[in-house]
């Protein structure tokens, strides 16, 4: 779900079904029938590189989540040129949702 007024993409986590209820959530009040938790993502640790991923998949994920702030993780597999490329691509993806991309180098820290 998207809340354009707050500028949040809201993700669902969890399962409305418990061990004793059915998937239809008839025993639970409210409109959220398929999940029991909703989260708006403020800060996202964004996968930047890994043997199991492509940068385009990370970009698609970031665009879908639209975090307010994001920083790279798993990027130490990359050369300097690879980090620069990854940061450029991920910055673009974060900015599509109006967010801020915060590239980090070893030893850097950010206060949220």
The number of E-state strands comes to: 6
Rg measurement, Å: 17 Å
Kindly estimate the percentage of residues that lie in beta strands according to DSSP: 15-25%
Secondary-structure content class: alpha/beta
| Intertermini distance | 24 Å
Biggest sheet: strand arrangement: 1-2-3
Q: Give the rounded overall mean pLDDT.
A: 79
Q: Into which percent range does the helicity of residues fall?
A: 25-40%
Shape: globular
Q: Give the SSE string.
A: EEEEHEHE
Q: Mind describing the biggest β-sheet?
A: 3 strands, antiparallel
Number of helical stretches of at least 4 residues: 2
Low-pLDDT runs: none
Short summary of the structure?
Helix content is 25%, strand content 21%.
Describe this entry's structure for a reader:
By secondary structure, the protein is α/β, with parallel strands linked by helices. The protein has 2 helices and 6 strands. A hairpin with a 4-residue loop joins strand 1 and strand 2 (8-13). The chain is globular and about 45 Å long. The relative contact order is 0.17.
Highlighted features:
112 residues, alpha/beta, three-stranded parallel β-sheet
Secondary structure: elements and pairs:
Blueprint: E1 2-3, E2 8-13, E3 37-40, E4 43-47, H1 55-65, E5 69-73, H2 80-96, E6 100-101
Parallel strand pairs: 4-5, 5-6
Antiparallel strand pairs: 1-2, 2-3
Helix pairs in contact: 1-2
């Amino acid at each position: 779900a998207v809340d354009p007024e707050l500028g949040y993409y809201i993700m669902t986590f969890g399962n409305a079904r418990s061990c004793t209820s059915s998937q239809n959530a008839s025993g639970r009040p409210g409109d959220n029938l398929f999940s029991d938790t909703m989260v708006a993502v403020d800060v996202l640790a964004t996968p930047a590189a890994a043997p199991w991923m492509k940068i385009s998949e990370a970009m698609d994920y970031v665009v879908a989540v639209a975090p307010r702030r994001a920083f790279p993780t798993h990027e130490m597999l990359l050369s300097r040129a690879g980090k620069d490329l990854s940061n450029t691509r991920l910055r673009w993806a974060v900015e599509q949702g109006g967010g801020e991309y915060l590239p980090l180098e070893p030893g850097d820290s950010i206060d949220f």
